[in-house]
Amino acid sequence: MSKSQFIYSPKYHADFKGHVFQIGKYDGIYERLTKESKKAIKRFHVPKSASNSDLKLVHTEAYLDDFLNLKLTSRTTPSELPLTAEIRDSYILMAGGTIRACEIAVEEKTAVMNIGGGFHHAYADMAQGFCYINDIAVGIKKSFQSGLIKSAMVIDCDLHQGNGTAHIFKDNRDVFPFSIHQENNFPIKERSDKDIGLPDFAGDDLYLEMLEKTIPDELISFYPELVVYVAGADTYCDDQLGGLCLTQEGMLKRDRLIIGAVRKIGAPLVIVLAGGYAHNPEDTVQIHYNTAVTMMEIYG
Q1: Cβ pair 244, 196 in contact under 8 A
Q2: Is the pTM of this model over 0.90?
Q3: Could you tell me the sign of the dihedral formed by the alpha carbons of 300, 247, 22, 55, in that order?
């Protein structure tokens, strides 16, 4: 098993025109890792953009025609984001990053973090909730197409349910979507293989208790050949869009529990970042940085 690795490009950054999505966190995480962890410096890979054929593994031609040609339609406007060439290209590049992360993780039997991605609200036929391309589904389906895997599990710990991912894989017995989220929050829920909807203001104790009760057993039962961990930072108690009350220490314990459980069964792991909207953007960077360091400690 090789050392844990990272996928990143400065071209992930795009002008989101003052939107609440903290796009600058990607650069901030990269800068922290390369400055403070000598181990991380030599572990970075630069992604290539996902091809149209890659995107078509998940998304419909009608939706892609709107998105690629920057058309504001009923299929693209549910993203709640601007749609510019720069933003479009950023999402396609991040999807390529998740594809590459899956390839490296499986081929080298290790853990790989894409410092981007995690856009779990995007459906096959429409954008939703800051998500244009469901890079999680694209990465998994590309891995199936390439013959790298025969099964995958998504462990989604973003504050919001991964509704797009759940819907895309609803009839696929080879992919197990799991989501733990705030129940009374966006979006309208789809059915995952396992959903844990938490009450408003749930904190560290309940969150970790529910994970401890489910994740190890689900991993052993399903025994996936690849795990994608959606490590959202928006469960943090000071998040602008959230209603859960996890501390940074609680989120670090979350990372250790999940990454450790995946490592225990020997599965390749891909980590994507998803949401994070702390009032202080440095808190968002810190939370994701902690996830990266935990990955290196456990898989490195």
Answers
A1: no
A2: yes
A3: positive
